[in-house]
Design brief:
Elements lengths: L14 E5 L2 E6 L10 H13 L8 E6 L10 H8 L4 H20 L4 E5 L2 E3 L1 H8 L2 E4 L4 E3 L14 H9 L1 H10 L2 E3 H6 L5 E2 L5 H13 L3 H13 L5 H15 L3 H11 L10
Parallel strand pairs: 2-3, 3-4, 4-6, 5-7, 6-9
Antiparallel strand pairs: 1-2, 7-8
Amino acid sequence: MYTLKAADWQPKHFKWQVAERVATITLNRPERKNPLTFESYAELRDTFHRLNHADDVRAVVFTGEGGNFCSGGDVHEIIGPLTKMDMTGLMAFTRMTGSLVREMRTCPQPIIAAVDGVCAGAGAIISMASDLRYATPEAKTAFLFVRVGLAGCDMGACAILPRIIGQGRASELLYTGRSMSAQEGLAWGFFNQILPNDKVVAHAQEMAKTLAEGPAFAHAMTKKCLHQEWNQSIEQALETEAEAQAICMQTGDFARAYDAFVAKQKPKFEGN
């Protein structure tokens, strides 16, 4: 089987750490509230794509330095140049940003966003595209595309956000571009939990470790079905899940769980 060792990767545009089968991505331009550039977009996209072949990573934590998550696309390094591009260049850019979300949703590892402070534009999209989201009380999440004269339909927002918080709430955020507070996000189901500033990343990493200790193949199948069944009827979804679960029942982890149960022990999952 073709594999890569993620611990050996050395990204240029964000911090990357792998420990105990958990990869942590940290955007590290705190002086600008961690904006994205053309290069960081592409490197993030490629990183999540490569995670399909990384056998030393079973969960991912995404966060930012300096009390903020991500302020979106850099005004000077992205938005300025976009105003001068022709349609071919613009389509190449919007497809590239969309491909980041696609790679996040199709990589097998669960992704956990630890959100503090500003979480805007593409930053809001990254948190939305994650599997779990933890926030600090100061988190402000804004899908603010309309504020710069753009539509709210960016990087899958119109498809994914309504499924998380409901059509009406998503419509309000996408039409107005206003910030969603941490408490709103919790009440609406966008955030799983609110934690103090000094504990949110540690909590996300602890949850990631818990997931990493679980049955990796089964987690990957759960994520695949959660993503795949958006466009299926209930009949199709039932068949999809029947096939997925039957495949999981052939794994070593399923047998290990049974043996551990019989022996009254905690199972030790190996991911196969």
